[in-house]
Amino acid sequence: MILSVAAAVAAAVAYAVSTIMQAVATRRAHGLAVVRHPLVIGGLVLDGVAFLLSLLALDHLPLFVVQAIVASSLVGVVVLARVVLHATLRRTDLVSIGVVVVALVVLALAAGEQPATEPPTGFTTWTVVVSLVLVAGVVLAYRRGHPILLALLGGLGYSVAAIAARGAHASGDILDTVLQPLVVAILAAGAAGVLGYLRALEKGAVGSVAATVSVVEVLVPGVVGLLVLGDVVRDGWAVPAVVATVLAVAGCVVLATSPANAAAEEPVPTPTGGVAPAPGPA
User: Where does the chain cross the membrane (predicted)?
Assistant: First the structure.
């Protein structure tokens, strides 16, 4: 289990670095051009590494723990913004970082040994259908959709990708996972998550976007994992797990509103010494 926790933490760090890279990129390009930006490409590579690490974490940890740790990448985002972008940290941010870390420790302790439960009948079909619906939703909302709507779609995309990965991972190792029909849902939902999240970052404030995505990608997969995929909580730890989840999500929401997140939205310096405004919607 220790190795699984380490893999989840490493995934969170990779996602944090990726988020900083992508947030900066969305201020230097707009529309679909942002997908070709070197920072976004590098961020997507890190996302891929983080996703593989999260699959390793799912060997012994339930979805609600893995997703909570992944969402805690906001801790890394705030710290990196302070170090790299010289952002300001509030006392509230420091307290929130402490709360999130303690909550994650409690969640890790609350996780029972996860059985390799096969998904119920129809799980694959419905997961693929939902992933394709999310892709369609992002396409329809891409041009004129509200940033929070796009963030919600992005969070749901990441959630469905995690749920599909958990369902596929139940039957074997990583190779078995990528050879299943559920890989269609993983790729489609993942694409919806990336495009929805990037567009939301481009059109809206990093704080509100990150908060929306964090809440969705912790709660939705966690509930589905417990009710549908056989994830378990250690006996006597149900209440601490619920409290820790609420505190972890609340801490992530506070960190999402930190000035450190807004640092990525700063206007980009121009060669003449002035500043270029952040690009508007395409």
Answer: 6-26, 38-58, 64-85, 92-111, 123-142, 149-166, 178-198, 205-230, 236-256
